Amino acid sequence: MEEDKIRAAMLRKSRAARIEQRGRAISFACIALIVLVVVAIFYFVASKGLATFYQNKVNLWDFLSKTSWSPSTTGPHGKPEVGALPMIIGSFGVTFLAAIVATPFAIGAALFMTEIATKWGAKILQPVIDLLVGIPSVVYGFIGLSVVVPAIRNVFGGTGFGILAGTFVLFIMILPTVTSMTVDAIHAVPSYYRSASAALGATRWQTTSRVVLRAAVPGILTGIVFGMARAFGEALAVQMVIGNAAMLPKDLISPASTLTSVLTSGIGNTVMGSLENNALWSLALILLLMSLAFNLVIRWIGKRGALK
Amino acid sequence: MANKNIITSKDVHIYYGDFEAIKGVSIDFPEHEITALIGPSGCGKSTYLRTLDRMNDLVPGARTTGAIKLDGEDIYAPTTDVVQLRKRVGMVFQQPNPFPFSIYDNVVYGLRLAGVRDRATLDAACERSLQQAAIWDEVKDKLHDSALGLSGGQQQRVVMARVLAVQPEVILLDEPTSALDPISSTQIENTLLELRDQYTIIIVTHNMHQASRISDRTAFFLQGDIVEVGPTKQIFMNPQHKETEDYISGRFG
Known about the structure:
heterodimer; A: mainly alpha; MetI-like fold; about 75% helix; B: alpha/beta; Rossmann fold; AAA+_ATPase (chain B); ATP-binding (chain B); ATP binding (chain B); phosphate transmembrane transporter activity (chain B)
């Protein structure tokens, strides 16, 4: 009788084990929901975006390489023209230019905050940068529209709208992101590298440029790619200053467009299931795939950095 | 005949803010000898060592008074070029701290700082230094692999090679083997004994056996002051002070 009781107690799950199991179930449910949502989004965008090619029989290569975009009207070949190259070039153009301009500023600002004016940097500059990250993109776009565009018009002529204006607005928008990730990357460089370098007779600048920056390269690259991902996906601010002309940009100061700007200005004016609508979904699919690519690049850099 | 003193120090005081870490230390270091600084934790031996290449300058609030001379020149004089000083007085730290670069780039780092660009010169210096640090045979086929892929003992010897490459006159070592296993420690000790003819070596160590094995002279630090300094044999066999005797026989510390 007594033995049976003990046996039963041993076989029964303890309270702690049951709580543990329940906790695991809850966290699994949460993560499953997130995965489900992501998969659903991918499926939805892909099914819509690929419909352009399956249902409307648009050639994929034409879509990526043709330069004329007018999905609502029929072109000379008797088919609507859906060449997305101008938008693809516009998107990559503003993204890369913004990253190229922002990187030296970000590294300079980060070095100032971490190596030169440490106290000042932590007390004043860091909060300022955090604040800049939080400013809504419409504000950046509005400033771009009322300050940057007229300035470009005055200096270079033309309308002032275009890739240059877009680059400038995006540069300001991603600068805080890239700077703060560069600051983190420099902070993560162990101080004993600095001592070792100083003990070998390095000046402060030699230590900074040859050891600290070099050791921080993976982190800085991650910051740059993060900034590029943000620039690539930014819609509103860019739409306000780029001019929204779906033509191949011939220079930096003539109106152009990006994937996001065409999407935001067009998606409300098309009918679900029509070619115009599907073509916009195809643009969205490109955006989604690109953000996936940016993510993979960040992971790859992180892994390479960790190996060293 | 005793060698001439390469470093002399007189009445050195070191303060961290209000705290007096070193209370009037006077000690001279003869050329081409290994001097061991021993003493319990917190006695100031590492702090003192770091004044010899002015690494304490990097510590905020640290202040040094007294006279420390390298070859008769005051290293704390306003005209002293600290960068130049640190090229003449190299330092190996407790934790192996190779840069996250290739072994080659680590070893020639100091030479590149000095502006050496010639590939053949760098190659030769790299091989010579790694051989002096007794690690050439282990790494000669992977000079361009990351130094972080080496074991702790190998890293510490690459770090020594990095210091040797700039051909300093004095090498300071701050507990260089305390993070290493016994075999790696022995290898480092043997390397130091071989380097003695060309360099002046000052080593801080917690390990009294290490001090007795490798050093010519030993200085015993206690609470920011030197209790006793002399030939290692004398310190270990016939200490003049009771505190020294108590410490080396393990009665406190």
